[in-house]
Write a structure and sequence with these properties.
Length: 404
Amino acid sequence: MRVVEIAKKERRRAGVVILLVGLLFTVSMASQVHQKYSEAETIGVDVQSFEELSERFSELAQDKGGEYAFEVLKRAFLPPQTDLHLLGHVVGEKLYTQKGVEGIQTCTPDFRNACSHSIVIGALSEFGEGALPEIRAACEAAPGGLGAYTMCFHGLGHGVFAGYGYELEDTIDFCRQTGTAEHQQREYIECFGGAIMELMGGGGHDPELWLASRAKYLDDPLAPCMSDIVPDELKEICLMYATPNIWDAAGVRLGSPDPDTYTQAFSHCDTIPTEDERLRRACFGGFGKEFIPLAGARDIRDISSYSNDAFSRAIEWCTYAQVEDGIGWCVTEGLNSVFWGGENDPQASFRYCALVGDTAGEQYQERCYHDLASNIGFYILDQKERESLCAQLPPEDRNGCTGF
């Protein structure tokens, strides 16, 4: 008996030793990574503004290369609510000056494709409309899944809008040239979406022209999307990116989110006639798209690691829509923001849908799983992975998941 007890103690001791060795190895590897990108710990210290932080990353990219600065950005300790997508643009601009269009091959989908956005913007600025074939080739080479190619044209839209002096009419004419039948004109639509995002929160290329453009086009909460300037086929993507303008009209403040202002903001979407489902979906859905990063202090580096509390907070904010279809579209686009074309860990999307029932209601949870099935079926190309993910869904959604 004593021999058995001694053997058990030895096994436990061996297990502890193995665990300690594993921990030491992990700490050692983390320390090596930390030493390699040591600026990650200091670059955000005592920063007073986004402009100052941008300048620090720009200087780092100049000194050590855009690719190195991009890796630091992935690891950096930064102030809450820092716009990491725009910081990714700053680094990507330097990468373009150093490597040209070929730099897109080192870009990753991190920061919602900010790096590849800057590459195509740089090509457009340097070569004009004649760069379109080269831009298309660069977008085809962009790392990532099925969504990387079309989202690359979203980045192009930022540059096109700035390149045309923040004039929407000329931007629409150019973006229309990018569309292909192969992708159901999605390039055209995403290009315009990038332009609207630039109108809502850009202006870095020429702040004075940008402010004049905002005064010209943003004359009501749903502007410019419901005006005659925007063709019918672009109104949906326009409303999806118009959320910041709607929030401004309702007094929503990103730095200190106050849910009491959300109902007022949602009410602007509710002015869209109920029979126009696609536009209501876009308007209400834009809130869900923005709520996810807002609930995570706008740190989009790893949405998959957001806590259940962060997801629940974003879902709860959707309920301030106070109308059934508005809540549903908000929750759905929140899911799409978490799934992000399969670039994020799909398990985060399962966590999100599991939380919807308790926070918003079972009917919205059913919709969430249904839309998750569609996302998996479309974006996950590896058959074994797709089947494994589909098996985790409620039985009634599994056929819709595997039947694409």
